[in-house]
Queue: 2 jobs
Job 1
Amino acid sequence: MLVAVVASIALLVTEHQNSQLGSVRTALSILVDPLKYLVSLPTSVLEQLSDSVMTYQALKTENDRLREEQLVHQTRMLKFAALEKENIRLRALLENSFKLGEQVLVAELLSVNMVPYEHIVVVNKGTRFGVHPQQPVLDANGVVGQVFRALPFTSEIMLITDPNHAIPVQVNRNGLLTIAVGSGQLNRLILPFLPSNADIRPGDLLITSGLGGTFPQGYPVAVVDEFTAQPNKAFATITATPKASLDRNRELMIVWSKSVPVPLIVKPENEEGTTDAVK
Amino acid sequence: MPLNNTIGFFRILLTLVLAMCLRIAPLSGDLALLSPDWVLLVLIYWALYLPERVGIVHAWIFGLLTDVLLGRMLGQYALAYSLIIYICLKFHKRLRAFPMLQQGLFIFFCLLLSQLLLFFIKNLQHPAQLQASFWLPVFTGTLSWPFVYGVLSFVSLFRRIK
């Protein structure tokens, strides 16, 4: 009895002081992770079934829609490539550096329920795929969160709406920098650090500012919903809705953004080479 | 009988693994707040009715596995489970003779103690806000005790585990 208590307290203390227990957790997680897959099996089987019994008509409509979307996106990408090159050239003029493009890995959500009050989800890619803690996670619409803990077969992702999560953001319209803190509700972020006279309006898009180094710059995070200036308080009450559909989608993208920033004070002779690298 | 022994052991293991699966079963929205601590309930049952098979060491190991499963700090469930199983083992003879209602009361206090310990550890880690719904699993756990009792006594009677 005493041994068990002492052992658990020792574990707690060591983990609290420094997380040297990663290897223990990794070893134990190999035992436990199959359970997570087992529990989420019914959901994924149901989903596959519903995919396989779709009617021809539904598939056709979906296919058409996707093709149309693809066309639109491709056209936009054409323009994007030109803009990117122009941006690089302009930055080179400013003697600034430009970050390389990111690499992404698509991970699927496992439908398991970890703990209430914390917005942590589990995905099916882990350290075997090179996932490491503090990697940003996105979906098609915006930032979802960051990798909280990477285990061999799964990894835990903390959503941006977790009460313990904060993300440095910037208002897209005017570059105003602030921090968005999770509220504990899946559809709301709070911006607690802006004064009542800040230049921010409902409908403003918040993007990642790239400060702090965890999230790459320029991804959409949320849209400001409500701005209430409180005359008797120093800070305004501002809430925002995340762009990413946090409660709905099953595919998430884990991003590698640790690429080395390349100084782009390009000399005319090697300009070709550098732009190729950026692609 | 060694063969019977191993079968019995695997049956206990299986119920515990099932309890762990139930623990992380996906529930929508507010239902997730109600989900009781199945692993602890199953451990308590085995500690009360087969105290020679399930001891503090088992409780500690399954607590540690639950920690990893739920991504908690290593050791907090291990601590809570081993303490509660210790209490159960201490009083198992008296508790077995209790009627359901009194047993339920005991289970209620066990679950409350475990939840208190977890809250205490969480609070040491970083000051946490206490929501009233934090205590809901204690009540739902107590209410689901008859269910756990029924299922597990069926399991143990099905082919006598000794």
Job 2
Amino acid sequence: MSALLQVTDVSVAYGKVEAVRAVTLAVAANEIVTIIGANGAGKTTLLNAVMGILPLKGDVAFAGESIARHDIEDRVAAGLSLVPEHRELFATMTVEDNLQLGAFRIVKAVAAQSFERVYSLFPKLKERRSQLAGTLSGGEQQMLAMGRALMGAPKLLMLDEPSLGLAPIIVADIFRTVSELKAAGVSVLLVEQNAKAALRIADRAYVMELGEFVLDGTASEIAANAQVEASYLGFSHAEKGAV
Amino acid sequence: MTRLLPIALFALAMAVLPLIPGMPPFWIVLLDNIGLAALVAMGLVLLTGVGGLTSFGQAAFCGFGAYTTAVLTTAYGVSPWLTLPLALIVSGGAAVLLGLMTVRLSGHYLPLGTIAWGISLYYLFSKLEFLGRNDGISGIPPLQIGSLKMLDPGSIYYVIWIAVLICALLSMNLLDSRTGRAIRALRRGHIAAESFGVQTARAKLLVFIYAAVLAGLSGWLYAHFQRASNPTPFGPQAGIEYLFIAVVGGAGYVWGGVLGAALVVILKEILQGYLPLLFGGQGQLEIIVFGIMLVVLLQLAPTGVWPWLTALLPIKPRRERPDATVPLLPRARSDAHSGALLRVDHARKQFGGVIAVNDVSFEVQSREIVALIGPNGAGKSTTFNLITGVLSASGGSIAVQGKTIDNSPPQEVVKLGIARTFQHVKLVPDMTVLENVAIGAHLRGTAGVFASMLRLDRADEARLLAEAARQIERVGLSAEIDQLAGSLSLGQQRIVEIARALCADPILLLLDEPAAGLRHMEKQQLAALLRQLRDGGMSVLLVEHDMGFVMDLADRIVVLDFGTRIAEGTPNAIKTDPAVIKAYLGAAT
Amino acid sequence: MNTTILLFLLQDGITTGAIYALLGLSLVLVFAVTRVILIPQGEFITYGALTYATLATGNVPGTARLALAMGVVAFGFDLFAARKSLHARRILRAAAVDLGFPLAVLGLTMALAGSHTPIAVNIALSLLIVAAIGLFLYRIAFQPIAHTSVLVLLIASVGCHLALQGFGLVFFGAEGLRGPTVSDAAVTIGSLRFTGQSIAVYAITIALIVALWLFFGFTLYGKALRATAVNRLGARLVGIRTSLSGQIAFLLASVIGAISGILIVPITTLYYDTGFLIGLKGFVAAIIGGLVSYPLTAVAALVVGTVEAFSSFYASNYKEVIVFTLILPVLVLRSLAAPAVEEEKD
């Protein structure tokens, strides 16, 4: 099986501090892979390095070609897309302008199809198309960020903490959409603190601690792992006890 | 005294230099010019490189110094030495006026403002009748000691370089002090500095005036060196050149200013000498080379030549460890108060149409650890900022030991015994752990600017550094005490912030996500430390996402969601609270 | 004060104010997209004006050669930046932009320059030359340090100003030049006489503002530029090259600067260093507009122009002092209204 995204021995450092140490990871076509771990474990750093926002040591190959030295823009053109933790929307521009810019690298005819697809995935965005992105609610902004990324028709979508700070009901919505993406042929690399929700929709998972992967396996294996249960899912005991 | 040895050697070398037989007088003139430029550049080092306030207008302050003595000595016959204090006062006074208007400006507005008044003052110099308009004032008397008239470049040389050396020493002393730490915190993390009582606006004005006075001194010397004064050397072009000098030498280093002056003055001389030979006598070719070099330098060596040179030295200066046994008196406590230590009553904060904190009320008793939890954007950090005065509340009241603190600035809040850490670490990355932590004790020191410059602050300084060392020891970072804060891991930086907060000798510690990025063991150590602090009489209010950590540690928990308090109680009560499970903990459906 | 003088000064103020408005707008544009405070805007003005004036005398201006020289350097930078993935297409594209474009401009200039060349051709050539210089200036001086702080960019900007001003002296000499007017027609309404030149100033200012509005509001590249200004990381994540945005911004700014210069040079004599002061007055307006607001900047520019007209009438000696001091109360107001935000990144 040749992976769509193959990350080999990647380290990322801020000055002298290594935030990610010799990490290896693969995402196959049509697969949802999640990286779970505590705040500060290095998950966001890893995603940013794969996208080209941060410099890295090691290799990143996408669709068989090394992209480790490519600019962000070339990685986007290759079919890699990141929805960053802070969403990075164009706040003073309309929803439609945001989406149109998402298709900046795409031919016009394809962009028209992308619009249809995004609006059918997120009907809310169609309602708000002429509203300024900055005036949307948190959940709608997350949808717009995902929609903007999908406008470029990526092969792999990387999501950084999509549930961050959102109400649980909206989180459920977002995660449902992520599973739908897989059905539409988009692979997903999902970074989440909300391990429970992430493991539910993922095919495979990596557990990250202090910049290293300490565990990996299928999502169900990871969910059943006692150690993971204790550190990341542990609190569910208290809830279960309560309910 | 090893600190002074290199400077003494340098002074000796400079003293001997003109005595070398066969020294061309032209070189002495060059050295005079280097010294004059070095004075201005040194001021810029403190202002721009260290304090982060860029000024393109320093040449105008030279003009104040030069014209003051020019007018007083020629029109009123005042003796040159008597005009020195007046020249410094005039340039300092001008700095106060311009500084009050401009130093509060953020980021790029300040340099633009300095360009504007730099040009404005240049035109003023060249239009005013009593300053001789474009022709300026000539016939300024030379400096004189006894019967020695300093008419030639070789005699005023000593005055110039003694001034340079004294100013360099004063500048270095100032940076290595309580006030110096406040100045060094201006560029990065001034909100943190304010939270420990640093009056940042005053510190900015101070270094602005300091730089202006140095420029004024240079201008005064220039007037007596040239024996004339006209507007050209005080125009915008010269102002740009001074900044160039500081950047070339290394804008973060006092001696970088001197080195930059030497490099640029000599380079300019060479360019003016040779370029016309190469390209024919047309135009100011050195300006082209200067401009291109500035651009190239920023691309290749943005920190300047000095740090690059010192990195080549085989011997690294050793840092002295503070003597941790020197006692520092505890902060004066206000009288015992029977009610809650912290009382937040219907606190409210609105940003435009968004209500970030919506009538939130809770209390923290003495000797209690309270945790504030909730989803991102629930208003936790905003609540912290309201309590510490970083933001002013739109409504409600907050009281510490019965004293309301509503809308006092952070500098006042810390005096009530509240110290904090930040969600996004706010340390000065190019200062050591010790220096960063010592900022926490800012209010417990007394030494002022002049004491620092003259090094009369050593006893006070030793007490502050000892306290800082003790707090670093307490949080378990003694091994890192001399590291630059920026080189530590994020988790360690959070712990440094806690040590800094402890240095303020607080009664209430506010910690914003202290456990983020810590390993399991480190979390346990942190929890143990916080329990120990509580048992010693301190209260802690913390924001944290790590539920294991919070549930284990907190005496009480307050849950916020969408800016509203949705629950409050013991950890066990919170775990089972249906509203909390729905909004935050998430139901395991 | 008599009404004729009042009206005359107002008219004069609005004419110069319109030019400051153009400059202010392009400064805001460049700052928003690249965070560069464009001090060399003044040189774009001078270069535009004096290139046009030199062409009018039938000579080939040195700026055309400078454009080619800068193109060669830019080509070197492009090759160096692409050294790890040298595709033939990438090299060809760089060669076309960096070498082909300025070479064609120089060739055209040498072929067309002459004492009987139509004004329109001279204007077009001047704009092309200055546009190339603006484009390459960003590529050479700013693109390599695009990620640094506003302050570093500002110092680099000052460096560019020094170098370009020095070249200006070499190319055009210390003597001032005047260029031919676009039109010698004049209209008299009441006691006011509108020259063809001043009408051209109004018309072109308005046309340019409308064109900019259309460009930013309705074209993909215009929106991409706005997106870069609003959120640089966001723009990169959708594949907008910030280096391209920066080059477009500089291209626009240099063209606007050159147009301003060509509009002024028939009215007043320009020297190699006059542009700096004119550009700075555009700055006064841009700063009043907070470097973000286009309409506020345009209005402020008209005020600056009017103040200048009145002060040159009543206190001509202190004209510059007054205009540049005007900025101080504005800065004070800004600092009083400054919110408690932290600028950690600088």
